[in-house]
Amino acid sequence: MLGLNKSDFKLFLIVCLLALAAPILLNPFPTDSALGQSFNAGYPALMQRFVIFGILVIGFNILFGLTGYLSFGHAAFLGVGSYAAVWMFKLLSYNVVPAILLSVVVAGVFSVVIGYVSLRRSGIYFSILTLAFAQMSYQLAYSVLTPITNGETGLQVYNNDPQILMRAGDPTVPHLFGWRMNDKTELSMGGWNFVFENGYYLAAIFMIISFYLAIRIFRSPFGMMLRAIKSNQTRMSYTGLNTKPYMLAAFVISGMYAGLAGGLLAAMDPLTGAERMFWTASGEIVVMAILGGVGTLIGPVLGAGLIKYLENIVSKINDSILHSWFAFMPDWLDNLLVGIIHPFIGKGWHLTLGLLFMAVVIFLPGGLVQGGQKIGALFNRKKKSDAADGATKPAE
Amino acid sequence: MSKSNFSRRGVLKTGAIAGAGLALPTYLSAASHSGFTNAPTGSTVTFGFNVPQTGPYAEEGLDELRAQELAVEHLNGIGDGGMLNTFSSKVLDGTGILGKKVNFVTGDTQTKSDVARASAQSMIQKDNCIMINGGSSSGVAVAVQGLCQEAGVIFMAGLTHSNDTTGKDKKANGFRHFFNAYMSGAALGPVLQKEYGTDRRAYHLTADYTWGWTQQESIQASTEALGWETAQNVLTPVGAGDFSSYIAPVLNSGADTLILNHYGGDMVNSLTQAVQFGLRDRQVNGKDFTIIVPLYSELMAAGAGSNIRGVFGSMNWNWQLQDEGTQAFVRSFGQKYGFPPSNAAHTCYVQTLLYADAVTRAGSFNPCAVVEALEDFEFDGMGNGPTTYRGADHQCFKDVLVMKGAENPTSQYDTLEIVEITPRAQVEYDPEHPMFAGGNLGTCNPGA
């Protein structure tokens, strides 16, 4: 269906379902319970980041997953997209349509330039070139092009901006033809409180479309060509095929995905800053892709979700929350446990992420997707030989 | 595809269940509607303390957090009550706010606007915070203030010294207790004239963001009014770490005064390097070379050590003041943490109490009621003498301290000494002053 084969269509449906039902699925615990206050992720700002970074990493995966070219400067396209979108808000109006369109176009043009230069080299040299370009963009945005980027303060919309398409009575927040991004419907059921926000659904729909396009690219002859480049580029050249245009196309597509993500970030929150282009932001994209599973369809989305979850949830757990969890234990044990966990929470969430990343790279080189497959295989075998499985269990 | 048979009973059943399911949310959500964002429903109310815990301003942020925790304790009736005993408004009695116990959540802004907004969003959307307080950078304050205005919660700014926070970027839902760059310039001017005369050439190194820009503009205006010349203004990136490449050119510029528009860890580094370059031992134009740090803090003074001796600057408040309010606050902060509070800590503490007081006087957590209660509110006993929250731009007006690095500090905490308490009248300005013009307060936004 929709030009997809059966298993791809199933995957696509799963992604649609996850994206559309996220406000419910991400709130597994009652809102006011201790677990809910710490672990629920179903609030609009975080869900938006899940899907927007999902788009970004899906795009990154088209380049890295298919061609094997590791771009270490992808955050630059995200940043450029955001700046373009905020400028549209400043010059035209708060309508998100021109903002998102321009962010994709600008990021596309920008990636043609960077890609044209960087793709003359491969392997580590390509990575370093993209990294250098991204850092250059960051420095330009941070301290050279301050009239355009507003430097470290960040670009935002002011009341006295031209906004030439703005009419009296138009919303003063980003909107889609009057449909405000920050309007939401709340649904309370028992202890649960689900928030359905317009902005999230706009981003989610974009994510679904991006995911669908990615599947089509993966299964197309063009995708096959990119895979061929990954397996042996020299051989491709020797058969008389010019691989450059394919590479550049993949690079630009992936840059446009990043631009779309940047534009959406600005549409959700009309402010942007140079730190979006910093090299750690680019590194984060690579980590997301590897954590989820490079070259798989759903992996990047999972990786992006996991990292954003850790960043927002683990970084907000503090000592007093831990003490309330362990309150039932004797004091010395409570303090001991809190002391052990302390370095891994709050501002130490990077440490947690690092350990997790190491574990995944060592034990699951295929990322979370491989983990899922292993678990799936485990259950399949169980079904076939339940008795044998029971027999091998160690006595506990 | 698949074959299905609809029975009449099945259709009716499904229809009834679906109908009930669709009607339920409308019924439930109508019941909880309350007129403003995050209206507290239970027996508690939550504040969001959004401060830098990592990055160049982390020291200030962590000290703010200590003071905020102390303020919450005092509001909930734990401890000795601190400034609640000296505050001129007596409606707070240590039983929380309007009978609700105060809770708080914390977040790390990393001194980045983007991260600070994400953190504030999660406080508003996930933790149902009714008020956001804190911050140690004007860039972040401006960004978070804009967010709070859109979301319909009150923003009580922490340490933010840029003119823009209550000038070009002012917002109806945002309030600033801290002083600003214009006030620093106005307070420092006369002291600098007395100390260094009217014939100086100043070289500015300026942090490249909203605060640095407005502070440089203010200091330049007030020193040029004295007759000083401005040799050059060089913008430096925030968090640069190494300023030697910016300091070397000062030696050949013919300037005899270096003005460091830096803050936090940046100021510690730039001042230390300026001293290492031997700037303070030089004679230029027949005068001793001097360094000025317009905005001081105790934490910076501690970081810069002996390099700060004799260097002039300004502050919002200092723990060495002798009034009742200051003493009460320093006592309870000292008892809890073992050292005196910084002026960043003071402003966050006062802001939290002021918010609580405004809610109590208004009798409601509704942001619009709070805005009304805070506008043109006059109070005393918070360590700065008689103070007014001006309604036109939500800026506090009070005395400003001119400080100097102590020549002979007796402990590690009295590294700064008070040179002059500049009276409030001298630092007041018109809300439409050119350095503050172009903004629009707008109207208060109660959100949903």
Number of strands of chain B: 17
Shape of chain B: globular
Q: Can you name the CATH architecture of the largest domain in chain B?
A: 3-Layer(aba) Sandwich
Secondary-structure element sequence of chain A? HHHHHHHHEEEEEHHHHEHHHHHHH
Shape of chain A: globular
Average the pLDDT over all residues of chain B and give the rounded result: 88
Q: Encode the helix/strand succession of chain B as letters.
A: HEHEHEHEEHEHEHEHEEEHEHHHEEEEEH
Helical coverage of chain B, percent range: 25-40%
Ranges of chain B where pLDDT stays below 50 over 5 or more residues in a row are 24-33
As a percent range, the share of strand residues of chain A is: 5-15%
Q: Which runs of chain A of at least 5 residues are low in confidence (pLDDT < 50)?
A: 386-396
What is the SS-derived class of chain B?
alpha/beta
Q: What's the oligomerization state?
A: heterodimer
Give me the CATH superfamily of the largest domain in chain B. Response regulator
| Measured distance between first and last alpha carbons of chain A | 49 Å
What is the radius of gyration of chain B computed over CA atoms, rounded to a whole number of angstroms? 25 Å
Mind describing the biggest β-sheet of chain B?
7 strands, mixed
Structural class of chain A: mainly alpha
Description of the molecule:
The complex is a heterodimer of chains A (396) and B (448). Chain A has a domain at 46-297. Chain A is 67% helix and 5% strand. Chain A has helices spanning 6-20, 22-25, 34-39, 44-67, 75-91, 96-118, 123-144, 146-149, 198-219, 221-231, 233-238, 244-268, 279-292, 299-313, 319-325, 331-341, 349-363, 367-384, 386-392; strands at 155-156, 175-176, 179-180, 184-189, 192-197, 271-272. In chain A, strands 1-6 form a two-stranded antiparallel ribbon. A two-stranded antiparallel ribbon of chain A has the order 2-3. In chain A, a hairpin with a 2-residue loop joins strand 2 and strand 3. In chain A, helix 5 runs antiparallel to helix 6, helix 6 runs antiparallel to helix 12 and helix 9 (198-219) packs antiparallel against helix 12. Mean pLDDT of chain A is 88; it is low at 386-396. By secondary structure, chain B is an alpha/beta fold. Chain B has two domains: 44-179 and 319-398, 3-Layer(aba) Sandwich (Rossmann fold), CATH 3.40.50; 182-315, Rossmann fold (3-Layer(aba) Sandwich), CATH 3.40.50. Chain B contains 13 helices and 17 strands. Chain B has helices at residues 8-31, 58-75, 113-125, 138-151, 181-196, 210-226, 244-251, 264-276, 298-304, 324-337, 343-362, 367-374, 424-427, and strands at 44-51, 101-108, 131-134, 154-157, 174-176, 201-207, 229-236, 257-261, 283-284, 287-288, 290-295, 312-315, 377-379, 387-390, 395-397, 400-405, 416-422. In chain B, the strands form four sheets. Chain B has a seven-stranded mixed β-sheet with strand order 7-6-8-11-12-16-17, with helices on both faces. In chain B, strands 2-1-3-4-5 form a five-stranded parallel β-sheet, with helices on both faces. A three-stranded antiparallel β-sheet of chain B has the order 13-14-15, with no helix packed on it. The A-B interface holds A 32, 37, 40, 43-46, 49, 142-143, 146, 151-154, 156, 158-160, 173, 182, 185-189, 195, 269, 271-273, 275-276, 312, 315-316, 318, 346-347 and B 24-25, 28-29, 32, 42, 53-54, 105-108, 112-115, 117-118, 121-122, 125-127, 138-139, 142-143, 146-147, 150-151, 168-169, 208-210, 235, 237-238, 438-440, 442.
